[in-house]
Amino acid sequence: MQRRHLIAAAFAAPAFARAQGFDRPLRIIVPNAPGGTSDILARLVAGPLGQRLGQAVIVENRAGAGGNIGADYVAKSAPDGTTLLLLDVSVLATNPFLFSRLPFDVEKYLATVTMLVYAPYILAAANRLPVQDAAGLVAHAKANPGALNVANSGTGTLSHLVAVALGAAWGTEMTHVPYRGGAPALLAVASGEADLTMAGATQSMPYVTGGQMRGIAVSGPRRLPTLPALPTFAELGWPQADAGTWQGVLVQGNTPPALVARLEEALRAAMQEPVVRQRVAELGAELRTDGAAAFRDKLRADTASLGQVIRTHDIRLDQ
After folding, report:
1. What is the pLDDT of residue 273?
2. Does domain 124-236 have CATH number 3.40.50.300?
3. What architecture is the 5-119+244-312 domain classified under in CATH?
4. What would the 3-class secondary structure string for 55-117 be?
5. Which ranges constitute the DSSP H helices of 172-272?
6. Residue 7: what pLDDT?
7. Comparing 5-119+244-312 with 124-236, is the CATH topology the same?
8. Average of pLDDT values for 200-210?
């Protein structure tokens, strides 16, 4: 298993840290490879978080098993608030349905701290594909069932599940091709190797604005200011209109509530830093620091809705 470590910030304030319950460096565990949305966000927030907690903050990638390796590591860590899990909520919502057995119980062994950002998905097509807009894409998909290759960031990921739901809603089928993460899936479409992809705006917007692929539609509550011509899924009457990359932070489930609250406060403040806000906006995302309760509600809602998609289409990872 490949790991990458980054000391994002170090501050000499041990007395302050001990007073707040953090008497050693913190680690942000990202359960996937470097370069994805979670990794980008972890490295962006690590410095400001360290400033507020008076400790070094280290970003560590522990990829594998659909995010289960990193999540399990945090679930079995010391309940002292110093080991954080930063990931897309969909990983925790879908894995109970994709794997016959998990090494941990999400509700019991992981405690929500706060969401950080939401970035909608952009459905984009290869420039060589003979479609210009959503209507043209649907017509082409129906006229050529199974012919369209949809690159996703891995079987069972949200980019896969949303595309499956769209194909069903359009009354046709598409061929789903898993890649080892969102970055190679985007490269496959940019190079013309694949026809379509669904990816978070944090990763895909540069490809669309740069003309390397054609934007078709966007999820989320509104059109993107940088891509105002792209209609939303809701405008088109498509399913999974709220889909996107919902990034959040969790800790070991038995972490004292006071430490969880301290982390929530520090993360909320860190995300308000002007440099962080600007970078988040540039990546096409929105701040969503609503706290532990809102995060827990979102996780439970996604578990119900995405579980239904997985069961309906009999998708599994460990058959």
Report:
1. 96
2. no
3. 3-Layer(aba) Sandwich (3.40)
4. CCEEEEECCCHHHHHHHHHHHCCCCCCCEEEEEEHHHHHHHHHHCCCCCCCHHHHEEEEEEEE
5. 182-190, 201-209, 233-236, 257-271
6. 42
7. yes
8. 90
